[in-house]
Amino acid sequence: MTDRTHSPAHSAHSAGSAGSAYDAAAEFDRQVHTLTALGYPALGGRTPEQFAELVAPLRAEAVAHAGDPGQEYDPAVTGRVPFVLVVSRELAPVERTMPLTALHGGRLPGFVDRTFEPGSLERFVATKEAEPPGRDGVHLLFDVERGEEFCGVVPNDAMATVAERGRGLLTIEEGIALMTHVPQLLVKNKCFSLGGSRSGDRRVPAIWISQKAPKLGWCWEGNPHTWLGMASAGSRRA
Question: What does the DSSP assignment read for 171-219?
């Protein structure tokens, strides 16, 4: 992977800077701006105006369900964010969106690991429990956490614990959305698996740091890693 010009979306003020008061409406607008600046509308064959119209109904949902207005938080420390705006792979293919991610303050583009053999990425689809709501190809993911408490835990055990708590595992698209909107969540020794997307085998997708960039790869469901947790969310809404 080669270096790239720093995208306006990645140089913009990120959600939840330490000590900043949280404003759900402003954060929703920031996330829409980020996606537009990165070219998401064109990936789905839309103009920026059409894309804005598509996601507009979700703004009220974000304001209503994102938590306490004015709350101060630092996602890099807590590993949590109130919500992220997610675009489905039907509108924005994973192969096109992962290279649009970058580490917080970084310049190198994210990439899909070559251990995904040709055609395999398409088979990693949402499990029944993680199926996105609605039919428009966009939804909101609420109460998101990267799940570093599960670092060093067998992925199968981590996924079972998440289910017992009534929380949902993140899909590949949702993990990319998290990296796109809040890149400061991905730091050394606090990376995350995405158990909401499976392909019918023992592989569990994950995003971690490799070559100074975010990498979408996979690990075996029975192999723990000290630097890899399990991302989850409280709910999804469309």
Answer: PHHHHHHHHHH-GGG-BTTBEEE-TTEE-SSSEEEEEEEETTEEEEEEE
Residue 14 is predicted with a pLDDT of: 45
Residues 6+ apart with CB under 8 A from 64: none
Q: 33 CB contacts (<8 Å, ≥6 apart)?
A: 9, 12
Round to whole Å and give the CA distance between 218 and 216: 7
Contact 107, 54 (CB under 8 A): no
pLDDT, average across residues 109-113: 98
Residues 137-182 pLDDT 10s: 999 999 999 999 999 999 999 999 999 999 999 999 999 999 999 9
Q: Is 60 helix (H, G, I), strand (E, B) or coil?
A: helix
Rounded distance between C-alpha atoms, residue 41 and residue 62, angstroms: 20
CA distances in angstroms from 91 to 9, 41, 83, 216, listed in the order given: 19, 8, 20, 19
Whole-number Å distance between alpha carbons of 102 and 104: 6
pTM of the model: 0.91
For residue 3, the Cα-to-chain-centroid distance in whole angstroms is: 22
Distance of CA 164 to the CA centre of its chain: 22
